Structure formats: C-alpha cells, structure tokens
Amino acid sequence: MKKYIFFTLIFTFLLNFTNFAQRKRIDSLITEYQRNSIYSVVIEHPGYMFGEEIKQEFFKIPVSDKYNDHNLSVRNFLSNNEDDQNENIQAFLNRNYVSKRVVARWFNREMATGACDMNLIQTRGNYDASIMDYNVAKQTARGSVILADAGEQLLNNTFVIVNDISYIDKEKRAKKTGVIFSAIAQTSQTVAETSQNNDTKELSQSIADLSNTISDISDLIAGFTVNITSYLYQLEWNEENAAIFYNNYYFAKGEKNEAKKRAFENDSNFFSLKYVGKYTVKSSKTVLRGTQSNEDVIRKVCARALDENIVGLQRKFEAFKIKSPIIVNGDSISSPIGMKEGITFASKFEVLEKIQDENGKTHYKRVGIVKPIAYKIWDNRYMAMEEEAENANLQFTQFKVVSGKDFYSGMMIRELK
Q1: Which residues contact 212 (CB under 8 A, 6 or more apart)?
Q2: Whole-model pTM above 0.70?
Q3: 191: which of 47, 50, 206, 247 fits an S-S bond (Cβ 3.0–4.6 Å)?
Q4: Distance (Å) of CA 95 to CA 79, 143, 288, 350
C-alpha cells in the first residue's frame, strides 16, 4: 500500500511538473517573439463635446500586447482643424523631435551623458545578451549581422500612430449638450438653495429638472459613438543611417564622449519618420453591458474603434502587419489573437517558419496556410469579459490547416489579404 501511494505521488509530481513545463514553454512562445513597436498619440480638440473625456480615457487604454509599447512622455497635442491633419501632425513631430527621441529610447540613451546601451534591443529582439554590448557596435563580423538584423526587424518596424477622435454628433448636439451640462450645475445650485428655504414645491420641481437633465446626459452616453482617423508614420532606418548612428553618436554606458553627445543633440535632419497612410472608422453601436460608469463607456467605445483602425491599417499597409506565434498540440493549432485583431471565419493566415542564415540574420519562409475555426474565434476585444461576450474566455483562436504540414509550436502566422 505504501509503495502504491509512493508511486502515485511520484506520478502526480511528474505530471504536474510536465504540465508546468509545457505552460512555461507556451508562455515563452507567446511572449518571446519580435513585435512591431508603437508610439500612440491623440489629437486634442478643446471645446468639442466629450473632447476632454475622450483624451483622458485614451490615456487609460493599454497598448496592445501584440506591439512593444514605445510611448514617449508627450501623448497629445492641440488642434482645432477638422480637415486632414498631416500638416498639424508634422509640426508636432518636428516640434517634439519625435524621430530622434524614438531612436534614443531604443538605445536607452541617457539625456545627461549621451551614453547608450543595447539592453532594450537585446530584450525585444531575443538576442544573446553576451554579444549585445558595445562590441556589437564596433562592427565585428558577428556584431554587424546582429545590428543589421535588429535594424530591419526592430527599429525599422517602429511606428507612430496619431489618432484624431471626435464625438460624431458634435455639430448637432454641441450646443444642446453644453446647455445640459450647464443646466446640471445651475439646477444643482437651485436644489441646494430651495432646500435651505424649505420650499417643498419648488424643491420638488428643481429635483425633477435635475433628474431630467441627468437623463439627457445618460441618453447621450448610451448612444455614444465616435469617428477616429488614425495617421500612421514609420521610422526610417536602414544600414546606411545605422552605420552613421553607431559611428557618430553611439558610445557605451560608463564612457564619456562629449563630441558624440553634442553631435546627436545638434542633428535635426538625420532622423526621420515617413508617412505611411491613414484609416478612418466609425465606432460600432455601444454595448453598455459590463460598464460601470460613463467613463467606462467612452473608454470602451474608443478602445474598440482604435483596434478597428489598427486592423484596417494592417490590412492596407504590409509593413504594419503583425505576426503571432502558434501553439501546436497534436492536431490542434492555436494562436493568442482574435476578434480584436479583426479575425472572422473568412480570414486566412500564412504560416511562417523563422530561419536564420549562416550569418545569423533572420528570415521568414511561408510553409502553409491556415483558417480560423468559426466557432472557436477568441473574443479578446476590450472589456469583452466584462460584457460576458461569447468566446471571451477562450484565450486563443483555433485554426484548421488549408495547406502545408509539419507545423510546430513557435512558428508565426500573418494575415493574408
């Protein structure tokens, strides 16, 4: 009996250990791959209905885990222009030296000293830490390949998205709603005054007026919709400007080089962002289930519309497309993407095998095509769990094979047009 219990315990331990190891491997596959990096900004419209609320809720929306968060400290700027915002955006980018600051963040550049390191590139690129130091920048044979690979896979895939968000009915309701908000304040004051005067009839009327004005606001929130135009810019980074950066500006932490520090600070032309394009969506009908406040509604509507814009930009511009790892378990193929990434039963994805050439540079080769299984598409949209949406608890989308074979965990998928 004791022997039976002993072997049962050993078996249970081994089973749990195996499950733990498998879970750790799955977690690493999900997290340890090269993503695009994104810096997101919102255009602020002072005086627009819900303009301040939209800005504040935008700051609370997390960056998608399919991207590296490359946000800088400045996340908004003012504009009263309702037309194409490219000129205003370009002025913002120039005024805040965004392209230079985006590069500086990649190299953890210290503002005070100008010194840099390769830690962020090593982490995001999953490169061997032992070679991601200043020796890489000295252009050793192996180091040069890593730098070229990091430039192509990481820095060149750094994007700035500027979002112009406006409440749709602002022209029709701005005056009305402004009056409503003003009336709330005035009526609240009247309620306070009449309660002090003990005028029961007037107090009842004031409370009724207050209730009606608050109800009007609730009606606006219940039908809250926005237009969002997202403008996409990409960091320009190639082997030529990489060589200039390492030769003219880069020096390692612990070193001093005042000449390179000043050269970086004085250069206003070398770093640049190119305009890729824009995409516009109107938010879908508001689903109030799962929301606890007006702020929740605004944030949920904006978050989902922003996700739709990102999907639209991905489908429109090849450079912005995301890749996601697959997990293969027997005949089952799954990946941690879903409705947030625009997946429908009609979507198709190419399966990519990551290959390193003899020098260590990364390439991706198509080895097959898969499609999502219609009833096993993960609803990972913002607040889908709170909404109790169908399939919100799946954690993965499952796929079926259209072509190809011998897929294995860690391969990547990318949506086809």
Answers
A1: none
A2: yes
A3: 206
A4: 14, 35, 40, 41
